[in-house]
Amino acid sequence: MPDDDVDPLERVRALCLALPEATERLSHGEPTWFVRRSFVMYSDHHHGGPLAVWCAAAPGVLEEQVEREPQRFFRPPYVGARGWLGVRLDVDVDGDELAGIIEDAYRQVAPARLVARLDEVSGAS
User: Fold this and answer.
1) DSSP per residue over 65-85, as a string?
2) Which residues of the chain have pLDDT under 70?
3) Full-prediction pTM beyond 0.70?
4) Which residues of 26-41 are buried (b: 16+ CB within 10 A; e: fewer)?
5) Which alpha helices (H) appear in 1-125, and where do they start and end?
């Protein structure tokens, strides 16, 4: 994730755990973040793909991102069929963009009360 001083896993972990009531545990051998259900899964080549995160995404986001930037985004195995977005971490990644993708993933699965809490903290309406 060419910000050479930052471990990609630690960056993703910090972004995920900063979200209300997010937790981490291993799922399918990889660090995965949950808010009742999973919203982000780290993939350290475990499934034969690139170093990446797999993120819950709104309908249409996967197709749009893969078409726009196939060198950065991909359809991950298993969850891609449900519209999850694969985000490569072994290419140049904008930290703010990654934070936004992770927050969007959280919003896809979090209960409304937690999304409202996130909006209060971030000042969103």
Assistant:
1) HHHH-TTTEE--TTTGGGT-E
2) 1-4, 46-47, 124-125
3) yes
4) eeeebbbbbbeebbbb
5) 8-17, 61-68, 95-109, 112-122
